[in-house]
Amino acid sequence: MPQVFRPRANALAWTVLIIAAALLVVAVCLAAHYFSSPYYSGVDRTPPQPVPFSHKHHVGELGLDCRYCHTSVEDSSFAGVPESEVCMTCHSQLWTNARLLAPVRDSLKNDRPLRWQRVHDLPDYVHFDHSAHVNHGVPCQACHGRVDEMPLTTQKKTLFMQFCLDCHRNPAPHLRPPDAVFEIGWQPAGVPSEARQRYGERLMARYHTPTTERLTDCSLCHQ
Amino acid sequence: MTRDDAPLAPARLDSATLTDRVAAVVLPARAPRAWWLALLLSALLSLLFLTGVVYVLSVGVGAFGLNIPVAWGFPIINTIWWIGIAHAGTLISAVLLLTRQDWRASINRGAEAMAMFAIVLAGSYPLLHLGRPWFAYFLLPYPNIMDLWPQWRSPLVWDFFAIGSYLLFTMSFLYLSLLPDLATLRDRARHRVQQLFYGTLALGWRNSARHWARYEQANRVLAVIAAPIVVSVTGTISMDLSVSIVPGFHFTIFPPYFVAGALYSGFATTAIIAIILRSLFGFRDVITRAHLNRLGIMMLCFVLVVDYAYMCEIFTAFYTGEDFYRSVYFDRWTGPYAPYYWGMILCNVVLAQGLWFRRLRESVPGLLCLALIADIGMWLERFQIVITSTHKDYMPSAWDTVTPTRWDWLIYAGSIGVFFFLLLLFMKLMPAISMHDMRDMLHRRRHRQPKGNPRRERSHE
Predict the structure, then answer these.
(1) Alpha helices in A92-195 (DSSP H)
(2) How far apart are CA B237 and CA A149, in angstroms?
(3) Searching chain A, which residue's CA lies closest to the CA of residue B201?
(4) Which residue positions in chain A have pLDDT lower than 50?
């Protein structure tokens, strides 16, 4: 009786097995690459806005405080996006004819709010409260990056759960005293980097920050 | 006890005729009419299963009869039931191999296939019960952007690892024991497609002494690993219940109690499969009355442990002096689910005593009835454990009853269909009786070798 397989069937079988193993490795690498890519996380995403508002100019160069426009950040879960009236506190006097600002003037005239596009968008199953963070010494910069260097507002952090947990598991190195929360690029004066952790822990005691166990409880954010 | 030495195979059966007969079931395209009929019936039931699964996936777990004290209904009952059935397969293929029981030769293949398909079904129920099964991969410890590890304190994760490792193990055991037989089929096949199919699956088995030595080695290593699995998987599943402080769940006797129940229902199902093999493919002289008798004895052993556990549990409940534990029993005896409790007692305590009679164990209809009673009884047991414990625990304000919906019953009945559909296909496509184990047994019987292991003795020379 003739053989069912020729000798080269062995080589074929090995080739198939090796290719399958290689494909598995490639698939894992591709998946890891995809999930860490800016395409997936949205890092460096700059959504187009109705008016090309520059945080670099307003914050970096003019030195406006965050709370001048984001008025509810200390009292509410939502930081607040300014009404056109807020823009007009200055722009009714400055650059009154600038074409760039025409949508703002139209908005005020027609009483129709500007449609700002959200840059930092968390999934709906996450409860995030701005006031809880800024009132416990978490600076804006921790999540929003150096907005004073952004001509157009860009997402700088992944906002993955990993990113949230990094801080919730050990908030100390990020915390600041109340008067420094809204400053950008602030460093504790006279605190060497190796003492930063202890400095933050003292702040945690002052803020009565909940324990790490509570801070990493599922229901804290997934209510 | 001379009657216990009833022959496990007729004297005229030799290796060549046995191989011919087993291969003659698999290789020709034709199959007995009864096989087609059974396949059709089970295929229809499988369609019901698929319908139920699609419905539950599209509308959610609300389709099951669940509510908030009774959050675990049919899916968990059926998981425990199916995983229990799987256990006898492992016991036969591993523990009876290590203890050198010759009579396992003709039924071990059927029992392993049974284990394989029962585990698949046992694993599918918790996934359905998740509600969002597409997130089932959250149970795996893998690097992820949530920076989370599975919750090791969660019974769901234990289930996942228990059932997952059991599935992997059973697959490798079943496939390994199939290898020499697949090579036999490859060599006997005349049709090109069959030659390629069995030839590819046989992985180049050439029947050489070296192949056999490695086979024996691997088989024994797997058997030694498997022996603890027989107790650990159902033990783990029982802890899903017993780690909670719910009266009716919280008993230290649960792991051995569940293992005994698992093996009881598993041997019962093995008996059903042995009877199907006998009557569908005419293997009456290979799976003999002596085999049925032994399966019946195994069932009897384990049902007695189960009955002991019932008494023990009731004793514990009353001995604690806790009103909550006692009231669970009064509720089981007289409450809304009392018919299930007394049904369980009827099957597992009263009717199961029929197993004491050799005449019943050796008769095909007798053992078939006892096996069906065992499976029904064990299902009722799981029902009353899962449902009656939670529906009435501590706070009267939290008490509620639950009624199984039509989807519960549909998916349950359908899963039995899927089980037999896969099993019937397996019986036709694969040698349902292990040819090499049988030849080994016949050879040793003929040459009157003691129940030792000749190959292993040779390797020591």
Answers:
(1) 102-110, 130-134, 141-144, 161-169
(2) 57
(3) A13
(4) none
Which residue reads 């996942």 in tokens?
B160
> What is the ipTM score, two decimals?
0.72
Domain-embedded: residue A28: yes
Residue contact A162–B146, C-beta within 8 A? yes
Does a structural domain hold residue A94? no
- The reported pLDDT for the residue numbered B372 is 95
Task: Establish if A109 belongs to a structural domain.
Answer: no
**Is the pTM above the cut of 0.90?**
no
B238-258 pLDDT, tens per residue? 998 999 888 889 888 999 999
- Chain B residues in contact with A158 by the CB 8 A cut-off are 145
CB count within 10 Å of CB B67 equals: 15
Q: Are A13 and A68 contained in the same domain? A: no
What is the mean pLDDT of the segment spanning B83-97?
A: 87
**Residue B29: what pLDDT?**
81
Quick one: which of A144, A153, A145, A149 has its CA closest to A51? A153
- Alpha helices (H) in chain A, listed in sequence order: 8-35, 38-41, 55, 66-69, 84-91, 102-110, 130-134, 141-144, 161-169, 196-207, 212-215, 218-221
In a domain, A190, yes or no: yes
Q: Do A4 and B186 touch (CB under 8 A)?
A: yes
Percent of chain B with pLDDT over 70: 95
Of the listed ranges A4-13, A174-183, B297-306, B361-370, the one predicted with least confidence: A4-13
The parent domain of residue A25 ranges over 8-35
Q: What is the pLDDT of residue B314?
A: 93
- Residues A169, A77: one domain? yes
Q: Does A72 contact chain B (CB < 8 Å)?
A: no
pLDDT of residue B103: 84
* CA dist B388 → A167, A207, B70, B241 (Å): 45, 49, 8, 13
Q: Which chain B residues are closer than 8 Å to A5 by Cβ?
A: 199, 204
| Contact assignment for B146 to A161 by CB distance below 8 Å | yes
Domain count, chain A: 2
